[in-house]
Design goal:
heterodimer; A: six-stranded mixed beta sheet; 28% strand; B: 14 helices
């Protein structure tokens, strides 16, 4: 790999990305680097304003980063955007298809742009979704627009799917339809997916790796299972002191992301859970009724994104 | 190309209702004749005119409307991302949208006219200019409007800080380009008459770079800005102003260069006007490698120093008698056009070398004269003879004004007196007002005029005054035939009284006052060049010298005491062929001996008799007497002692 090309084994590779907007002293993205191997489903998480959309625009070659590079299939996406988009399906956050076109017209238009276009698969999906192909895009509901966008994104049998919060504002039924279709697509082919979403249960269902943006930096980037394995919620009472200010000191063997003192005792979220460490912790003098429970991705996100950076005791 | 057409087709399909609407609006002209007062015999014309103006309105409105929205709205609303997340190269997005907008604009204008054409057939079709050039102009104009509207809309709607730079640079470059073009026009760099009399050609010559810059800027805006509004504006501005700078800066440089011409850049000298004394001469001519630009200078034939006259329309310069000061008028211009036919007067102390604007503004075509010392300036604009003290040229003071409703020639005879005499080329003019035949002296100190003499109608010759004002020399034709002999007469300079007839048998006779009170008259008689020498006080020539076969003779000056130059040509015409045929002979006025001089030369001030009311002074060895023009119209000085020739100005082809 040289400076002009990315890692060809990775479908997506982001290197030291910096995005700054004029007039804003702090960068929107800073030193962001990660890669997505072929066939992975990568969930990119972050609160509103964390920089997800800027990152997606850079990944699509729509925006030039202030520094750093984005590679798709090993090629610099800013330089080779048009070629790379032929291998990429995109579902944007705000469906951006012209409102005066129907799904059928959009499919016909795309058939002139993509070398591998499958009209039949588009209409098949639309039929399954129950979306009329001859209704103007602007007249469709938000959920229907998302489903049309997904159908069109899959119409070229892309090697990479880039989904930018596609279920934002969708009702539960539309969300379920969207993710079910996606899961089916992934089962059929080895499509690589980058998914940003606020629907963390949906992401958790699909992603095998997640990254989390916070304050413009990528604070998490690891396999979902590993992530979930190292995060635990601990509950216990401390009989050694009645001074709440001293609660939590017994957690010194853990990286506590969050500590809350409740009426019955202490609740903490730790990011480096291990069974042996927990056994030692539970045996500490004063620690009573200690229990550890697994966290959902959403709970991990709230713990990490809601407060300080992980790895720091609070 | 396939993807470009796909984008263009999408744009057109999306706006198909606009085209349908235009077709329906095109039906309106058909309904107008049904309105009261618009029907009857003129119904067809009403339809033609209405359809024409409707099509014209659409031809202007559509490109502006689509240019302002078709890309900019998508960028501001981020909808342009729809295209950038597809396998579409930027050129396809840009060109597809442009083609779509162009098609809708052009076809919209055409559709508006179609109903009228369908109803009225070929005659209606003829109301529209559908020739090839007109169609090209129409499409190019549409493109210009589209690109211009897009650029302006981008600057305003993208709301980035670049807009400050845009307006600053727009103002700066507009001023630079306009001033450069003005400067080049005034210098005559472009000769409109050589542009096939076609203002459209010139307009497109100027518009083509503008269209190119606007299109390139909009392309870079799409290619480099993509979905980022701020970057898109930056790319547009950098490209537009970069390309504009590429045009404007060389244009400014060209204007500076064209206007920085020196006498050494003169390709040839069209004519010269020599100062009565000293070494300064007014020269004008085309300058090398500067298009059709011409330049005028007051040039010191000995030292090579010069004063540039920024725009001297015919090279006419008024010199003081001592040759140290000069005055001339320059047309006052608006931005591109001459303004109110007025002049700005300039005076220069030639030794200082810098012209000074006097602030005086006589009407156009005013003639000028300087007093012997050069401290007083007179101007006559056809109605008013005004005299000014220009000792301090930048702060002139009016001395006297005389209202004179007649054409005249005039000069200072001394610091206080201006003498005016009739100015007619055609002596056969009938019904002349007697007052127009007066010789009048105007006293600046008393502000009074005095008629000192008068010519009789029917005998009025074309007059020039001797440098000492003692004599008027008149040339008069007896027949309306340029090859017929003319009568050359000598008159009293103040009263006009006939003193003697110098010649009656010479074609195109010319006269010079020589040193020692003598006079020389040269012309052609019976196919031979003749030079007659008159001694002071004698009424008949002391000598009549045959100079050899000639169809034309030009009398030069007294190059050294008693030695006169005469140029002879075998041709009557003054064309390219005749130029190299001139032969100079030197005549010893004392002995009558004729010696051959160089070939291909003619006295440089040969045409000055037409615009100078005063003859050269009788002084042997005046530097200007030794100046000649060669066949390539280069200014050549001949050393009277050695005969050596030096090319002063002009370039060999």
């Amino acid at each position: 790999m040289n400076g002009m090309r990315g890692n060809e084994a990775a479908v997506v590779e982001v290197k030291s990305l910096l995005v700054k907007y004029g007039g804003n002293p702090s960068p929107t993205l800073e030193e962001v680097s990660f890669s997505i191997p072929r066939g992975s489903v990568y969930g990119l998480l972050g609160r509103n304003g964390a920089g997800k959309s800027s990152l997606v625009r850079c990944l699509l070659g729509q925006q030039k980063p202030s520094s750093g590079k984005c590679f798709l299939f090993g090629e610099d996406v800013w330089k080779h955007r048009s070629l790379l988009m032929a291998r990429t399906g995109v579902v944007p956050e705000d469906p951006d298809a012209p409102p005066s076109m129907t799904a059928r017209q959009l499919s016909a238009f795309f058939s002139r742009l993509y070398p591998r276009w499958n009209d039949a698969s588009v209409f098949d999906r639309l039929r399954r979704f129950g979306v009329p192909p001859d209704t103007l895009f602007g007249s469709l509901s938000k959920g229907q627009k998302a489903l049309v966008s997904l159908s069109l994104a899959l119409g070229s049998s892309p090697e990479l799917l880039l989904l930018d919060d596609p279920t934002l504002g969708l009702d539960a039924v539309a969300r379920a339809a969207f993710f079910d279709e996606l899961v089916g697509e992934l089962a059929d082919r080895e499509t690589t997916v980058l998914l940003t979403s606020h629907d963390l249960s949906g992401v958790e269902k699909m992603a095998d790796r997640v990254g989390m943006l916070k304050g413009g930096r990528l604070v998490l980037d690891e396999d979902l299972e590993t992530l979930k394995g190292r995060f635990r919620r601990l509950r216990y009472a401390n009989e050694q002191t009645e001074d709440p200010a001293l609660y939590g000191q017994e957690l010194s063997d853990f990286d506590a992301v969050k500590v809350k003192v409740r009426g019955w005792g202490v609740e903490a979220v730790v990011s480096n859970y291990g069974d042996e460490a927990f056994a030692r912790f539970a045996a500490k003098e004063g620690v009573v009724d200690a229990e550890a429970s697994a966290l959902s991705l959403e709970e991990i996100f709230v713990a990490v994104a809601g407060e300080a950076s992980p790895g720091r005791n609070t | 190309m396939k993807t470009t057409l796909a984008v263009a087709a999408r744009e057109i399909v999306e706006r198909r209702l606009v085209l349908l609407g235009t077709l329906l609006v095109g039906l309106l002209p058909l309904t107008l004749p049904f309105l009261p007062g618009l029907g009857g015999a003129g119904a067809r014309d009403v339809r033609f005119v209405a359809a024409f103006y409707l099509a014209l309105t659409i031809a202007v409105a559509f490109p502006i409307a689509f240019g302002a929205t078709i890309l900019v709205s998508e960028i501001t609303q981020k909808r342009i991302a729809f295209y950038f997340s597809r396998p579409l190269p930027p050129v396809s997005i840009w060109a597809g949208k442009l083609l779509g907008a162009l098609f809708i604009s052009v076809s919209g204008a055409c559709l508006a006219a179609i109903p009228t054409i369908l109803v009225d057939g070929k005659r209606a079709f003829a109301a529209f200019d559908t020739s090839g050039p007109a169609t090209v102009y129409f499409v190019l104009t549409t493109l210009l409007l589209l690109a211009g509207a897009h650029t302006f809309s981008s600057m305003v709607r993208l709301r980035s800080a670049w807009i400050v730079l845009d307006f600053l640079l727009a103002a700066l470059f507009a001023a630079l380009i306009a001033l450069s073009l003005r400067s080049l026009f005034l210098a005559g760099f472009w000769n409109l008459y050589e542009m096939k009399h076609s203002p459209e050609w010139l307009a497109w010559w100027l518009a083509a770079p503008l269209i190119t810059a606007l299109l390139a800027a909009s392309y870079m805006q799409v290619a480099d800005g993509r979905t980022d509004a701020r970057r898109s504006h930056g790319a547009l501005s950098v490209t537009l102003w970069g390309l504009t700078a590429l045009l404007a800066l060389p244009l400014g440089g060209l204007a500076l260069w064209v206007n920085a011409a020196t006498p050494k850049d003169l390709v040839h000298v069209d004519g010269i006007q020599a100062a009565p004394h000293g070494t300064w001469v007014g020269v004008a001519g085309a300058v090398r490698s500067r298009g059709s630009a011409e330049a005028s200078f007051i040039f010191d034939a000995m030292s090579g120093r010069f004063v540039k006259c920024p725009f001297s329309w015919d090279g006419t310069v008024a010199f003081s008698a001592d040759g140290t000061r000069a005055a001339w008028g320059e047309p006052r211009f608006g931005f591109f056009e001459m303004k109110d036919n007025r002049l700005d007067l300039f005076v220069a102390d030639l030794s200082a070398g810098r012209p000074v604007a006097t602030g005086l503004e006589p009407a156009g075509w005013a003639t000028l004269a300087l007093s012997p010392s050069g401290r007083r300036l007179a101007s006559f604009d056809g109605k008013t003879l005004a005299a000014f003290d220009v000792s301090d040229a930048g702060n002139p003071k009016q001395i006297a004004v005389f209202r004179i409703a007649r054409d005249l020639r005039y000069t200072f005879v001394d610091e206080d007196t201006i003498r005016a005499f009739p100015r007619f080329f055609n002596t056969q003019v009938k019904g002349l007002d007697l007052a127009r035949l007066d010789i009048t002296e105007f006293s600046l100190s008393s502000k009074k005029s005095l008629v000192t003499g008068r010519f009789e109608p029917g005998t009025l010759p074309f007059l020039r005054l001797s440098a000492d004002a003692r004599f008027l020399v008149g040339t008069r034709r007896t027949k309306d035939d340029p090859s017929a002999p003319q009568i050359l007469t000598l008159h009293d300079g103040r009263t006009g009284a006939h003193l003697m007839t110098l010649s009656e048998d010479l074609e195109a006779p010319r006269v010079r006052f020589l040193s020692g009170g003598r006079m020389a008259v040269a012309g052609v008689a019976d196919g031979k060049g003749i030079l007659k020498i008159f001694l002071e006080g004698e009424r008949s020539p002391a000598r009549s010298i045959e100079l050899g076969p000639a169809a034309g003779a030009i009398l030069g000056g007294e190059v050294s005491p008693g030695r006169v130059a005469v140029a002879l040509t075998p041709f009557r015409s003054n064309d390219e062929r005749s130029r190299s045929a001139w032969k100079i002979v030197f005549v010893d006025t004392g002995t009558g001996a004729v010696s051959a001089g160089p070939d291909g030369l003619v006295p440089a001030d040969r045409f000055s008799s037409w615009f100078s009311p005063v003859l050269q002074p009788a002084e042997a060895g005046l530097p200007s007497s030794c100046l000649f023009l060669d066949a390539e119209r280069r200014l050549v000085r001949i050393d009277p002692a050695t005969g050596a020739q030096t090319v002063l100005l002009g370039r060999s082809k």
